Amino acid sequence: MIPTVRPLRPLLAAALLAGATACSTSSAASGSTVEVVVGYQSKTINTVTAGTLLRARGYLEQRLAEAGKQSGKTYKVTWQDYDSGAPITAQMLADKIDIGSMGDYPLLINGSRAQEAGGPGTRLVSITGYNLLGALNSVVVPTGSPAHTLADLKGKRVSTSVGSAADGTLVQALRRLGVKDEEIQKQNQQPAVGASALKAGGVDALAQFVAWPGAVVFAGDGRLLYDGAALGRPTLHGVVIRQKYGAEHPEVVQAFLRAQDDATRYLNEKPLPAAAQVAEATGLPAEVVYLYNGPNGIATFAAPLRPELLEALRQDVPFLKSVGVLKALDVERFLDPSYLAKAALADVPAARITGTDPVCGRPVEDPRLAGELWYQGEDSTRPAADPVCLLRAVKAGGGKLRAAYVPDAATGTRWFADQDHWVRDGAKLLPFTTEDGAAAYLAAHPGTEKLTYQQALAAA
């Protein structure tokens, strides 16, 4: 069964206490005890294998206990939780955090500022979650907003975290549409602040990274205006270390990477229990966590420094320089696959929707079409072979539906079926995450018809 979500207030208080403790200690060896301070972002749920899930399952402590049998040392872990990557970087530069996880733009800024400060600097040692098209970043607007496309935000107030990957997606997507940076009223806010401002009418849009767009839409406070996958640029999160600490305690870094591998394996093999555990630890709805971290989810979890992801980082550097948040970075010095190589990790297959569709009676095979239905009181989801089968399953009932997930017909971005824009093309019923995406398909395919969710259900 899915555990009850705990209130946020005591969790945040505990995180602040942990942060205060971390700031007051040194992360160097004290006698036979080696301290390691880990900075993470609990609600940035495509870093959970290096943060929330890793912590909840105790994998790092277990791996360090194993390392202690070899080294004869005791290892003490302190966890420090933040809303974004910038404060983790600040703490790393002050030698207060040894290992941190954050998104691609903050990672690059981390490497740049550490190199600028002199000394050994920092190193990117592994990846957590990624999306090859950029769907980890999105823009949402209030449900009653008159905006239909991203270009409609010209002159509007947009909340984002400046310097984040979500901010970069916003700026680059607007530039493609001919909207200059100064033509929007950008509000530099932490994700939670921006989500509250959107609900209260203080801003016209929220451009953020996971899991905030999904959480806002699931809560009924907004709708998806722009899917980052439309940009077609890989986005990723990863693990960065202080190289001085890594050189002094390589066994700690290797233990961390093995623990990350444990968490990745658990998430991919048991995605629903993993989502429930992350939801319990963060206060996020389990349905939102599972949207991103479930099989065929928006995030793919794997530790290797894949060539296409590293090339995306290299291509991001000129953009970050152009917007003034990065001065210089020796990217090749910043990338360090040697720790992963020494950790000798086996490949972890990504989670995929499998089984037989109970309504259409055929195997679920194509990840570009496969969906899932999650019913209240059930410890597993029901697979759907394609969007039509999913709609038929919703019509057939079978309990209280918590969420139905289906991939966008163009980008593959997994989204809530009842929040999608639907198109009928002959016998096919096609879901799109945004109105813009549906309009593009309609324009390119004469004779197709736009449907509401209820009309799509009826048509199925």
Automatic annotation (TrEMBL):
Record's keyword annotation contains Signal: yes
Q: Which Gene3D superfamilies match?
A: Periplasmic binding protein-like II
The signal peptide here is 1-28
Concerning InterPro entries, the annotation shows: Solute-binding_3/MltF_N, SsuA/THI5
Q: Which residues form the Solute-binding protein family 3/N-terminal domain?
A: 47-270
Q: Which UniProt keywords apply?
A: Signal
Please give one Pfam family short name.
Answer: NMT1
Family named by the database record: Belongs to the bacterial solute-binding protein SsuA/TauA family.
- Protein name, UniProt field: ABC transporter substrate-binding protein
Q: Which organism is it from?
A: Kitasatospora terrestris
